[in-house]
Amino acid sequence: MPRPDAALAGERRRVRPAVVTLLLLVAVLAVARTRPGASAVLWAQDFLEFFSGVFTLVALTAAVTAGVGAAQHRVPIRFRILFQAAHRAMAVLAVGFLVTHILLKIMEAHAGVLEAVVPFVGGAGRLYVGLGTIAGDLLVLALVTGVLRGRFVARSRPWLWRAVHATAYVMWPLAMIHGLSAGRAPKSWVTWSYVICFAVVMAAAASRLPRMARDRRMLGARAHARPQAATPRTRSEADVPDEKFWASLRAETGARSGDRR
To answer: Could you tell me which residues belong to the region Disordered (predicted)?
Structure first.
C-alpha cells in the first residue's frame, strides 16, 4: 500500500501539467486581447490554415516510418525504444495538426461540422474532401487502438489490433490525395514534399514486407502443428510476432536489473 506522502506526491505530479496548461491558456487569451496580440493571433491563424494540413501529412509520415523502425527486429532494443517513442509522439502530433486543420476549415466556412466526421455529405464536387475525412477518421482510430494495444493483447486478440492499426497504410495515401486535390492548387514545393513523403513511406513499407511474410509462415506452421503432449502450454508474449519486441525488452531489462544486484 503506498505511503500517504508518496500518494500525495503522485497526485501533485498529475495535477501540475493541467495547472500549467490552464495558466498558459489564460496568458495567451490575455495577450490576444491586446492589439499586437490580436495581430499575432491572426497571423498564426492564417499560417496554420495554410500549413496545418501539410504538417499533418509530414507528422503522419514520420509516425509511419518510426513505427516500421520499431518493428524491425534487427535494430537494437535501445533504438527500437526510441523509434517507438517517436512513433507515438508523431502520431499525437499528427492528430493535433489534424484537429487544428479541421477547426480552421470550419471557422473559414470551407467545410461543415458533419463533413469533418462523416465523408461525402458535402454534396457534389466534394470527393477529395470526403477522402480527407476518411483519412482523418482512420488516423484517430489508429491512435486509439495504439493507446489500447495492451487490452487487445491481454484478451488474446493481437490479430485484431494489427488489422485495425494497419489501416494507417490505407489512411496515408488517402491523406496525400486529399492534400494535393482538395482546395487550392498546391505549390511546387508542397507537391515535392508530398513526393518525398511518398518515397519515404514506400521504402519503409517495403522493408517491412519480408518480416510480415516470415511471421505469417510462422503462425501458419504453429496452426498446423500437432500437440506432442496433453499438458497445456501457457501462451507467452513471444508467441505473437508483434509482441516479441516487448518480451525481449522485458527480458533485457530484467537481466540488467539482476546484474546490478
So the answer is: 222-244
Crossing angle for the helix pair 168-181 and 188-224, nearest 10 degrees? 160
Give the whole-angstrom CA distance, residue 114 versus residue 105. Answer: 12
Treating both helix axes as pointing N-terminal to C-terminal, what angle do 77-107 and 35-70 enclose, rounded to 10 degrees?
140
| 62 vs 77: CA distance, rounded Å | 19
Tens digits of per-residue pLDDT, 130-158? 999 999 999 888 888 878 776 766 666 66
Q: Are 170 and 52 in contact (CB under 8 A)?
A: no
For every residue of 191-251, DSSP letters joined together read: HHHHHHHHHHHHHHHHHHHHHHHHHHHHHHHHHHPPPSSSS--PPPGGGSGGGHHHHHHHH
Residues 241, 162: Cα–Cα separation, whole Å: 10
3-state secondary structure of 2: coil
**CB within 8 A of 207, min separation 6: which ones?**
68, 72
Contact 61, 172 (CB under 8 A): yes
Residues 36 and 7: their CA atoms lie apart, in Å, by 44
- Can you tell me the distance from the alpha carbon of 90 to that of 98, in angstroms, rounded to the nearest whole number? 12
Joined grid coordinates for residue 184: 487550392
Neighbouring residues of 161: CB distance < 8 A, sequence distance ≥ 6: 145, 149, 152, 153, 242
User: pLDDT tens across 80-90, in order?
Assistant: 889 989 998 99
Task: Indicate the burial class of 97 (C-beta count within 10 angstroms; 0-12, 13-18, 19 or more).
Answer: buried
Residue 163 is placed in which grid cell? 488489422
